[in-house]
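Hi U.,

Before I forget, here's the chain from the pilot set. I'm dumping it here mostly so it's searchable later in email.
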Amino acid sequence: VIDVRKNAYSHKFGFSGGPLRRLCSKVGIAYQHIPDLGVPSKLRADISSDEKRQALFIRYKAEILPSERDAQRRAIDLLSERPAALLCMERHHRDCHRGALASVLAPKAKLPIVHL
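Structure:
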């Protein structure tokens, strides 16, 4: 599991970084948090419509990801080592930056994208 949230915190039971890491460990799953691949809170402040959300993802790919080459390399290395899943908050990839992130990482890692 590659947690790509800026802050691995959640009000959902067991979904914050520490508890999630412990639970994954108990069942033999590696957990890595790469906060540099997350979206800063101030940019997530208003994603109340599909248009605003899509504008955020475009900005994320154009402004945030280019400055996070090391974090991308770390994620690509993890994705290439063994089966892995990008984890964030939203249920559907189309509503989450992980969909945009996957579209950038997959070609670099030479891996297909499979949305679960």
